[in-house]
Each structure stands twice: as structure tokens, then as C-alpha cells.
Amino acid sequence: LALTATATEAVRNDIVSSLKMTNPASFLASFDRPNIFLEVVPKKMPLVQVKKCLESHKDESGIIYCLSRKQVEELAQELKESGYNVLPYHAGLADEVRTHHQNLFIRDKVQIMVATVAFGMGINKPNVRFVIHYDLPRSLEQYYQEIGRAGRDGELSHALLLYSAADIRKIRFFMEDKSEEEKATAERLLQEMIRYATTHRCRRQLLLSYFGEAKPVDEELDSNQC
Question: Between the chain's N and C termini, which has fewer beta carbons within 10 Å?
């Protein structure tokens, strides 16, 4: 039995091939999370934009994802100084510190976790009301997995992505040490993420189509509503 939360058709085929399965039965659920409101806005004054979002989610649990450990530490400190109940989480922290911060978040002792991609795998916290991407994710798979940590109780939740061209340059800088094949793959994934962030189409439709699922669209809705 092979299970995965998020995978394109190519990844699913790769799983079958890697595990040498022969004509396996495949069960695929919908990728649509209609209770999560998808919002993408240009990153202009990110700290102000984050605080505005937090004010609309007072006393609610949420996660803010950053691209680097340094950004996690800086943002967590800035929010803490502004009076928010917040902790950082990244791979540079000691194991016991990460575990302690995670447990505080799960038990609602801390409302906001500022984290890198290292945070969230396997965490079953149903009442996460918002996920903010302070930086552009490296791929739509990563983005989808991270916003999927919101609204697991089925209640309305909010996914906010702050987008800027500077994020693209940072991600490409991190690609420099990769092989040419790895760079090509990373660039392809990044281009899909850029397309999602800059589209004027319905973002929910684009996201679902990336995973091979079609969704009817109300043409009167803009990209942040449908």
C-alpha cells in the first residue's frame, strides 16, 4: 500500500514504477479544499501586510512560512515585539527546542508559528485558521501541502501568499549548487509557481488543473475569489 497526500500524475506514476507495482488499484480523492480562501497579493510592505492579516485572525492559530532560517528568526522577533504570541521553527534549532515549540503550538499555548518548510509534516492540528507565505514557495506541490495545514476541521480558513520578483531571485540563488538536471527540474517547478502567483485566471482552477483535476469556473469571479 503506497499513500501520499499530494502528487501529480507524473509523481504517482513514478511511485508505481519505483515500487515495481503491477496494475495496482488507484484511489484518488479530490484536491479541492473549498473551505480555504486563496489570496495572492504583491509583496510591498510585508510586515504591515502580515500584521493586517493577523488582525483579521485574532486569537486564532496560524502558520507563517518563510524561505530562510534568518527570515524566520527576524519575523518571529518583530512579531513578538509587537505583542503577538509567536515562536520560530526551523532546522537550525536544537531538536528539543523544535519539539517544545511544536507541542506548544499543538496545545494552543502559542497562536502563531513562523517556520521554514521543515515545519508541519505529520502535524494533525485541525483548527489552523490561516497560512501565510511570507516568501514564494519553490513549487506548487510545496504550496499546496503547506496551505493544506489550514482548515482540517472543515471550517473557513485563509491562505495568503505575498509575491515579489525578489523571491524568485532568492530561490534561483539557492539553486546554484545543484546539478544541471536538478536546476532544470527546480526551474520548471518554479515557473509553475510563478504562473500561479501572476495569473489573472481563477487560481483554484489553475491549482487543481496542475494536479489533473478540472473545476467549473464562474467567469464573473476574479482570481482571488473563485
Answer: N
Predicted pLDDT of residue 86: 98
194's grid cell: 510563478
H/E run at residue 88: strand 86-89
Q: What 3-state class would DSSP assign to 215?
A: coil
**What's the order of all strands across the beta sheet hosting 112-115?**
36-42, 157-163, 128-133, 61-65, 112-115, 86-89
Residues in the chain: 226
Please tell me the distance from the alpha carbon of residue 170 to that of residue 173, in angstroms, as a whole number: 5
Q: What secondary structure does DSSP assign to 96-127, as a single string?
A: HHHHHHHHHHHTTS-SEEEE-TTS-TT---TT
- What local confidence, expressed as pLDDT, does residue 7 receive? 81
Looking at the chain, the whole-number percentage of residues with pLDDT higher than 90 is 78
Count CB neighbours of 170 within 10 A. Answer: 14
Alpha-carbon span 145 to 141, nearest angstrom: 6
pLDDT by residue (tens digit) across 6-54?
788 888 899 999 999 999 998 988 899 999 999 999 999 999 999 999 9
pTM listed for this prediction: 0.90
SS3 content of the chain, % helix, strand, coil (to 5): 40, 15, 45
What average pLDDT score do residues 171-197 get? 93
222: CB partners within 8 A, 6+ apart: 200
CA atoms of 93 and 88, how far apart (whole Å): 9
